[in-house]
TrEMBL record:
<feature type="region of interest" description="Disordered">
    <location>
        <begin position="163"/>
        <end position="217"/>
    </location>
</feature>
<protein>
    <submittedName>
        <fullName>NOP14 nucleolar protein</fullName>
    </submittedName>
</protein>
<dbReference type="GO" id="GO:0032040">
    <property type="term" value="C:small-subunit processome"/>
</dbReference>
<feature type="compositionally biased region" description="Basic residues">
    <location>
        <begin position="1"/>
        <end position="11"/>
    </location>
</feature>
<dbReference type="GO" id="GO:0030490">
    <property type="term" value="P:maturation of SSU-rRNA"/>
</dbReference>
<keyword id="KW-0698">rRNA processing</keyword>
<dbReference type="GO" id="GO:0030692">
    <property type="term" value="C:Noc4p-Nop14p complex"/>
</dbReference>
<keyword id="KW-0539">Nucleus</keyword>
<feature type="region of interest" description="Disordered">
    <location>
        <begin position="1"/>
        <end position="23"/>
    </location>
</feature>
<comment type="function">
    <text>Involved in nucleolar processing of pre-18S ribosomal RNA. Has a role in the nuclear export of 40S pre-ribosomal subunit to the cytoplasm.</text>
</comment>
<comment type="similarity">
    <text>Belongs to the NOP14 family.</text>
</comment>
<dbReference type="InterPro" id="IPR007276">
    <property type="entry name" value="Nop14"/>
</dbReference>
<keyword id="KW-0690">Ribosome biogenesis</keyword>
<feature type="compositionally biased region" description="Basic and acidic residues">
    <location>
        <begin position="187"/>
        <end position="217"/>
    </location>
</feature>
<dbReference type="Pfam" id="PF04147">
    <property type="entry name" value="Nop14"/>
</dbReference>
């Protein structure tokens, strides 16, 4: 054991130790408790040892000193905010020029220094300056006189002046100067006056020399110019054009960039425009304009003069020459009427050209410009009664603009009621004997504008109409067992719904109920007349319009088209396919669209079916009825073609369209129809047959095969602990980065822990200091109180003795 200990001691301090170990050994002699020597079990050749010797005390003191200079300083100043404020006037104001900044700063500096430094010194005056120089220094007249004049001798005094004012001192000075010239040995310093005179003479002499040099240079240049002109006449010779062309050098073509830059220089610069007005401002301006027009109309109606309210011209005397009586232009004013056109623009119709104004324009003048929202539907109806379509649109537009929600508090509720009135008015126009479909078409625009302003009120009104219609249909089914298709007003409401609200939404509070209502119409309402067929085809068109974007499958649509084809066939051929409700394979109304008259078949031409034809079917002749039946059949072929194009992407497309294809290919008498009808038929059938079946066969999910058990030994590489395993360069770099990250993370955690401990010690020391100060103060107070109490007791004892 003793030998082993000696061997360890010898190994711990090798002879090849360098500077740190030697310095540590030197410190061991002075204070061995400050040094920590990290001993190694074995001395390995080639291994660099960095931390053989450590100084924990020194490093701890350095760390504490660094933390007191940084962390403790931040901790003490954690609630302090020091901000540098630049109080120079106008330093960050770009609107002020630098000259104004300097003048303002100078005035502020003068104001700061203004006032007497000592309030008791009455003789203290402000020092006046000129261009930064004190006026007191300028008045000493110490500046050198610089004279540019050639004739006058400023700064010198004549002999007469000196003799008159100074008693002939000038002569004595000249005598002394002449004697001084004779005696060169005796040199005296010159006076200030002599120096000034000498400087003046030198400057005049230099100026004279410069003038003579300039004149001589001018003379030489003139002489040289004259000589060159004489020589040039002898040398002058006109070069021929051929030589000029040879000598001419091609000018370099301008670069594209330079051309673009020059073009940009000539382009018009952007000019600032007026800001966009808000909706409230536009509404106020429109209301003010309509009120002014209404006031003008009332004034004209009562016969008031427009010039009566204007200020009369002041009296001008006859002697006044500037009376303005000049006939430079024709000041006569023509009679004009302010007319409100459909384009919402105010125009002028002059009386000098009566043919320029139509009867319609004069009719527009007859009603007022400012309207209030009607309180009831009867008032609204009377307001629009007897008006043309254009006048009704103008009235509705003025009602909206005069009662905009931004102009008053209750206008929103009034305009919401206006939407309901307008919707009811459209339904009433549709129920007339001759429905005014053109008027309804024009009224959709103000209805759309109101819907955009108040979407909630509009949706509530449409939902109320749909709810009532569905409820009426259910009551009819319960009472009579069957229901009929609705009137023209309900069909128009369904069309308006598609115009006002988005139909491609998956769920919509208005469109979804309308969708369900239309599907019930095509399944629950029996088809007994030709009017029902036309209404059903109109609903089918609406269905295609609703699902044009979402491509939602509607089975009621396909079934109804199949039924329409079924009722166009004779009874004996209605076999081989299934007909569903509202159509029946047997019964009375099985040949509603069957046309047997060959003359009617030959005279038929394709025509669109207007909705107004529903109300006029009773008045039509037999030939017209047959033509309408053929038009319905052509429309059915067109709808089948559109359905095929819409649903071609469905995987079950062929199964859905199979009954329709069977009916078209096996039962429809194509040869009996006219040529135009045959074209519609073949286009629909071609659209159905061109679609290829696209079925993906069902395939079971592929699974990885389970391997058989094998009894071969599994060889696992045994890794030696503590050794770095080999690998690629990227793997080694990645491992090094991971190791470095771990080391840095541990060091950061260690430093944070030490910082927290340091702050905790500082906080504890602050608390201990506060506690000790409080205890000291309490002790002092208790001592003073006990002393007072002793004195009081002593006084009390003295009083008791006395």
């Amino acid at each position: 054991m003793g030998k082993a200990a000696k061997r360890k001691r010898k190994v711990s301090v090798p002879s090849t130790a360098k500077g740190p170990v030697k310095s540590a050994m030197a410190m061991v002699k002075s204070n061995p408790f400050e040094v920590k020597v990290n001993r190694q079990k074995f001395n390995i050749l080639g291994r660099k040892t960095k931390n053989d010797v450590g100084l924990p005390g020194v490093s701890r003191s350095k760390a504490i000193k660094k933390r007191t200079q940084t962390l403790l300083k931040e901790y003490k100043e954690r609630e302090k905010t020091n901000v540098f404020k630049d109080k120079r006037f106008g330093e960050y104001n770009t609107k002020i020029s630098p000259e104004e900044k300097m003048i303002r700063r100078f005035t502020l500096e003068r104001q700061k220094n203004y006032g007497k430094k000592n309030i008791y010194n009455l003789n203290e005056d402000e020092e006046l300056t000129h261009y930064g120089q004190s006026l007191a220094e300028i008045e000493k007249m110490n500046d050198i006189i610089d004279s540019d004049s050639d004739t006058e001798e400023r700064g010198t005094l004549s002999a007469e002046l000196t003799a008159a004012h100074f008693g002939g001192g000038g002569g004595l000075l000249r005598k002394k100067a002449s004697s001084g010239q004779q005696d060169e040995e005796e040199e005296k310093p010159k006076s200030r006056k002599e120096l000034i005179e000498e400087m003046i003479t030198k400057s005049k002499q230099e100026k004279q020399e410069r003038q003579t040099q300039r004149e001589s240079a001018l003379e030489l240049t003139e002489k040289l110019d004259n000589d060159w002109k004489e020589i040039q006449t002898l040398i002058a010779r006109k070069t021929p054009k051929s030589e000029k062309k040879d000598k001419e050098v091609e000018k370099p073509k301008p670069d594209e960039y330079d051309m673009i830059v020059r073009e940009l220089g000539f382009e018009m610069k952007a000019k600032p425009s007026e800001r966009m007005k808000t909706e409230e401002e536009l509404a106020k301006e429109e209301q003010a304009r309509l009120q002014k027009l209404e006031a003008d109309r009332l004034r004209r109606m009562h016969g008031l003069d427009e010039q009566a309210n204007k200020k009369k011209p002041s009296h001008v005397s006859a002697d006044d020459l500037a009376d303005g009586f000049i006939l430079d232009k024709d000041d006569r004013r023509l009679l004009s009427y302010k007319v409100r056109r459909i384009g919402l623009e105010v125009t002028s119709v002059k009386a000098s050209s009566p043919t320029s104004c139509s009867k319609q324009d004069f009719c527009l003048v007859s009603f007022c410009f400012y309207f209030l929202v009607p309180e009831s539907y009867e008032t609204f109806k009377s307001l629009l009664a007897g008006r043309t379509i254009e006048q009704q649109l103008i009235i509705l537009d003025r009602i909206q603009k005069c009662n905009h929600p931004s102009l008053a508090v209750g206008n929103k509720a009034k305009l919401e009621k206006l939407f309901g009135f307008l919707l009811e008015y459209i339904g009433e126009l549709a129920t007339l004997d001759l429905p005014e479909l053109r008027t309804i078409d024009k009224l959709v625009l103000p209805l759309y504008n109101l819907c955009q302003m108040f979407p909630e009120a509009a949706s509530d009104s449409i939902k109320f109409i749909l709810r009532d219609a569905a409820h009426d249909m259910e009551e009819l089914i319960e009472v009579k067992g069957r229901a009929t298709l609705p009137g023209l007003d309900m069909l128009i409401y369904l069309k308006i719904t598609s115009l006002l609200f988005p139909t491609s939404d998956f769920m919509h509070p208005v469109v979804t109920p309308a969708f369900m209502y239309m599907s019930q119409l095509l399944t629950k309402c029996r088809i007994t007349t030709l009017q029902d067929v036309i209404k059903g085809l109109f609903i089918c068109c609406l269905f295609l319009e609703y699902v044009s974007l979402s491509k939602r499958f509607v089975p009621e649509l396909i079934n109804f088209l199949l039924g329409v084809l079924h009722i166009s066939l004779p009874k004996k051929r209605a076999q081989g396919y299934t007909v569903v409700h509202p159509f029946s394979p047997v019964g009375k109304n099985l040949e509603l669209l069957l046309v047997c008259d060959k003359k009617d078949l030959e005279s038929w031409q394709k025509q669109n079916l207007p909705l107004s034809i529903v109300t006029r079917l009773k008045e039509t002749s037999r030939t017209e009825m047959n033509h309408i039946r053929l038009s319905c059949l052509a429309l059915c072929f067109d709808l089948i073609k559109k359905c095929a194009a819409l649903y071609e992407s469905l995987p079950s497309f062929h199964e859905i369209m199979h009954p329709v294809r069977v009916l078209l290919t096996q039962h429809v008498p194509v040869n009996e129809y006219p040529e135009k009808m045959q074209e519609w038929y073949h286009s629909a059938l071609k659209e159905l047959e061109n679609k290829v079946k696209q079925y993906t066969p069902l395939i079971s999910e592929k699974k990885k095969p389970v391997p058989l058990k094998q009894y071969t030994p599994k060889i696992v590489k045994v890794l030696e602990f503590g050794r770095k395993q080999g690998g690629s360069k990227k793997e080694q770099e990645r491992k090094q980065l991971i190791q470095r990250h771990k080391r840095e993370l541990k060091g950061a955690i260690r430093e944070i822990r030490k910082d927290n401990q340091f702050l905790a010690r500082m906080q504890l020391s602050e608390i201990m200091e506060r506690d000790s100060a409080r205890k000291r103060k309490v002790k002092e107070l208790l001592g003073s109180l006990s002393a007072q109490e002793g004195e009081w007791k002593a006084m009390k004892r003295k009083r008791g003795k006395n």
